[in-house]
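ok here's Arginase, seq below lol
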Amino acid sequence: MNKTIEIIGAPSAFGQRKLGVNMGPDAMRYAGLIERLESIGHTVIDQGNVESPAIDMKKYKSEQGGLRNLEEVTTFCESLCEKVDGVVQKGNYPVVIGGDHSIAMGTISGIAKHYKNLGVIWYDAHGDLNIDETSPSGNIHGMPLRALIGDGHENLINIGGYKNKVKIENIVLIGMRDLDEGEKAYIKEVGIKTYTMADIDRLGMGTVIEETLAYLDKCDGIHLSLDVDALDPVETPGTGTTVPGGITYRESHFALELLNDSDKITSFEIVEVNPLIDIYNKTAEQAVGLVGSFFGEKLL
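and the structure came out like this:
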């Protein structure tokens, strides 16, 4: 079924320490994102990029205590939340292209107010479940999912003017292979549904997606948040927090094809493409290919 897709660029680099991820949205556009979606048959509206606070290089490069760039992350996510909210209100399909993964707080805050029981698939090498007390780095891109649950700094949990956007029982983590000690303890304590790389190897990606959709069947909408570092860095080298032993490109295509076939995913974001540390824009091109599979591109 053809959709009216609205693309929102979210060029934030404030959630981590490597410049270049703010160029990710335009790298994906350059790699043919809009044309790819239109060739499948969708109507595409490109809203351009959300305005970002100016980057103060002196501050950006400094060792900050606590939550790094808290003010900038909060300001950016509030603006993104408003943009996404507007797309959902119109009945169009929101696709957010990042930018580091802290932007998920803005994306999901704009979406969750339209659903009573939103589900979230977090396709990532990392859980992003830290709070400032457990974070080894203070990088907010390692905290968005925890903030969306309702834990963390007041600025982060209140984006969009409300708290508790996602229930713990409505979250599925896929691709986990690098978790901080505090995240491991939290996942075990609260019982978040988690598929590590060992689970994917044992079960196969088809079973993982089938079980995920069955688990989230109670939800009235499902958001897919895809970090390109979920894939093995051989496949997506242009991302800031690489971890060997990740999901293959083919497995990811298969996962996204299955999610598209289910017709249950109601919003989508793809994050952490960094062309400054990429090889000939390979990661952006791979990301665009994944988006194509998610929106129904088929070989035959």
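fwiw The two ends are 16 Å apart (CA to CA). kinda neat tbh
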